[in-house]
Design goal:
The complex is a heterodimer of chains A (155) and B (735).
Chain A lengths: L4 H7 L10 E10 L8 E7 L5 E8 L10 H7 L10 E2 L7 E9 L8 E7 L6 E8 L9 E2 L4 E6 L1
Parallel strand pairs in A: 3-4
Antiparallel strand pairs in A: 1-5, 1-9, 2-3, 2-6, 6-7, 8-9
Chain B lengths: L1 H26 L1 H9 L9 H11 L3 E6 L5 E7 L2 E7 L6 E3 L5 H12 L3 H30 L13 H31 L28 H4 L6 E5 L9 E6 L2 E6 L5 E6 L2 H14 L4 H11 L1 H18 L15 E6 L4 H15 L4 E5 L13 E7 L13 H7 L8 E7 L8 H13 L8 E4 L3 H15 L15 E11 L7 E7 L5 H6 L11 E5 L7 E4 L8 E7 L5 H7 L6 E7 L13 E6 L3 H9 L7 E7 L9 H10 L4 E6 L8 H7 L1 H9 L3 E6 L1 H15 L6 H6 L3 E5 L1
Parallel strand pairs in B: 9-10, 9-11, 11-12, 12-13, 20-21, 20-23, 21-22, 23-24
Antiparallel strand pairs in B: 1-2, 1-5, 2-3, 3-4, 5-6, 6-7, 7-8, 14-15, 14-19, 15-18, 16-17, 16-19
Helix pairs in contact in B: 1-4, 1-5, 1-9, 1-10, 2-9, 4-5, 5-6, 6-8, 6-9, 6-10, 19-21
Classes of the chains: A mainly beta (155), B alpha/beta (735).
Chain lengths: 155, 735
Amino acid sequence: MKSLLATLALTTALTLPGLAMARPVTLTTTMNAYGGDGAYLALYVTDASGAYVGSLWMAGGKSKYYEHLSDWYAATGGDPAQINGITGASVGAGRTLEITLDLADALFDAGYTLHIDAAVEDLRDSPNEIAVPLTTAGAGTPVPGRRYIANFTYK
Amino acid sequence: MIRALHRWPGLLAFALATVLALSGAALSVFPAAERLAAPAPVAGQTVADLAARVAATHAGLEEIRRAPSGTITAWWFDGGKPGSAVIDPATGADVGSADPNPVERWLTTLHRSLFLDDTGRLISAAGAAAMLVLTLSGAALVARRVGGWQRWFTRLRGPLVGRIHVEIARIAVVGLALSATTALWMTASTFDLLADGPVRPAEPAAVSGQTGLDLSRMVALHAVPVDSFRKLSFPYAGDTQDVFTLFTDTGTGLIDQGTGEVLSWSDLTAWQGVSETIYMLHTGQGAAALGLILGLIALSVPVLGVTGALIWIAGRRGRPRLKGLAPASRAQTVILVGSEGGSTWGFATTLANALQRAGQAVHVAPMSSFDPDRHPRAERFLILAATYGDGISPASAKGFLERLTRLSAPPKAPVAVLGFGDRSFPAFCAFAATVEQAARAKGWAMLLPMDMIDRQSPQDFSRWGRDLGAALGVALELDHQPARPASESLTLIARRGYGAEVQAPTAILRFALPKAGLWARLTGRGFARFEAGDLLGILPEGSTVPRFYSLASGNRDGFVEIVVRKHPGGLCSGQLMALQPGDSVQAFPRRNQGFHAGRGRAGLILIGAGTGIGPLAGFVRANTRRRPVHLFFGMRHPDSDFLYGDDLAGWQAEGRLSTLTTAVSRGARPHYVQDALRSEAAQVAEAIRHGAKVMVCGGRDMAHGVAQALEDILAPVGLTPAMLKAGGRYVEDVY
């Protein structure tokens, strides 16, 4: 289990109320058979105003390609500190990425939105492939992606 | 050192480099195919025009890209469904699928990472690095072999495999070095080792907040021709704060969707420019023709690998097996070897073995380790020095001259220098000559005058051995076999006897040409490829030492022919003379590059006596292109030993032989071949002045007489036999 709590708290200026209360959340991202190489995915959270709060996961190891995750890149400037310790391999077509991490309770039902930017070599960049509000009620409901992601679920 | 740098990466990287090269060659086709398939561009079209046309036919347009091939692709998101297509820039309409080619993708992944992701990328990069080392070390070896960079494309001689290797390599080397270097750069870029990352334009302080300006009216897009366009990303529908992002050959800009003005711009950095050029050079994307050339060149890698391995194996087989050698301190005879490819070591081994049989304590060492103090009991030094290329010291002789010059006094034991080289190069045995001069300058006593071996000639070597034996007071018979020959059984199909009446029983023996397998034909081994002037090694029964006879035929003639004279008490000639059709002998061919007629149109002056007619007759028989050939033939009596008499008349009628001059030594007025030469002096001098090549075959005395006659004949036209020899236009096969 990857603990994201510390990263979120450390790497963002945001101070979350009730940090002590957190729950393990599993994020499941299933890719389409889009016919390309492994996809880079950036999972991150914005607040109710759309401002970047912090990153949850980066699938894809080469920072030179991060610019293709254009919304995430615009929000962070590609800052490697944002994804320090929460980086994994890119996700192949038709494969599933499953990550479990501790998310603060305060992030739920408070206007926060989880975004996924996706990019595949030689194919069109797909920022904001997923944008799903973090709500207790929405947990477990698959959300379809736009281009490369078949669906995304958190619970 | 350079050779080792060439050999080991080559052998290790062979399989890897082959995979990379073949996949690279296959990939090189795609940019060219894409270029051919790309819809025709519209002359003078601007991005504004293109974008407007595409947007008009595609709702929800998100991005337009132009590939280096000129292919325009659009991506859109309409009604919750993503779409993409290749676009005709003239109409904006879809003309084909934008989905990547799965074969190209598979090959690309194999080529750059062997399906092993980053580990594979590093392995591939190691392959590229090995290729780079190979091209550089190989280029240095070629330069050394041909005698300098300015002689890069000089004609090659030597075994077929070696020639194929160098012929291909000296053309392919530039392309392979380019592919390898660019591959390493691209790997470094992928692993973020270079500062060639993108620079994003600064976020604009403010945007107009307006939307909906017609694309065709956007100033910033009007300014960019499609030729330099790369990518245009559209703002999110309904997001008033979002902008267009435009990528061109020169940089990246953010464009206001309400005003069409550039809000912010960043130029392409110099690093990016270099990386993009390198990407283009490596992939051929944007340089399809270059890509195809590099792909074609990449196909040479497996061929170079196989021929290189064959050369290495052949070199290993030729390695000496030295047994029972004396340590440096106890040696009476010290053999110093300056060898490049290893063949001179073989000669040293033969020499060492023969001296050991003569009761000598022999030590063999590379010239580079020369130190007379290590050999207190030395009675003589024998230096066998090859010359590499244009008189350069060979690998195992590095530093010898410096060591010799530094000695305070010359070694007490005398020295004999034997040079190995190739007479067709201007600096024949130049290194050995330098060594001899240095030795003389040092005051080192000479055991023998310097002698030279042309193209590993076993005859030259055994002759020198006899001279050395005479100087030492022992009988020294040097039968050198560079690589233990695999012999084949040859069956006699015809024999013609001559000379019995003049006490010189001689025969022309014709054997059936053995069938050559595919491998032999490919590598030119065995009887698959030989020509007149090459040697036939015959292993007589009861002996393991082959005797060599000059071949009077080539493989194209479809038979193997030699001329043999019976020597009193001669083991081999006795067995050969006793052969009847249907009988067989064990034999193998040996290249004798120095005594080939060559392919030129220049005339030939062939001079021979007795059995020396053999190869000369072969040259005449093979002269289907009817170059002028003048044959001088010495015999004892025309009724008895006029070898090839009938054939010569026929060849003359067919135009393969221009003139035939004979000399008869038995009779009232003995006449020798050199006399015949003198009687035709004017014609001979004239032919030589016009570029004719002189080829002499026969006994030593005859060759000596011919050399003297030629000296006299050539003096009026200002030439000497030595000058002709230096130019490879006077060659001898003397026994």
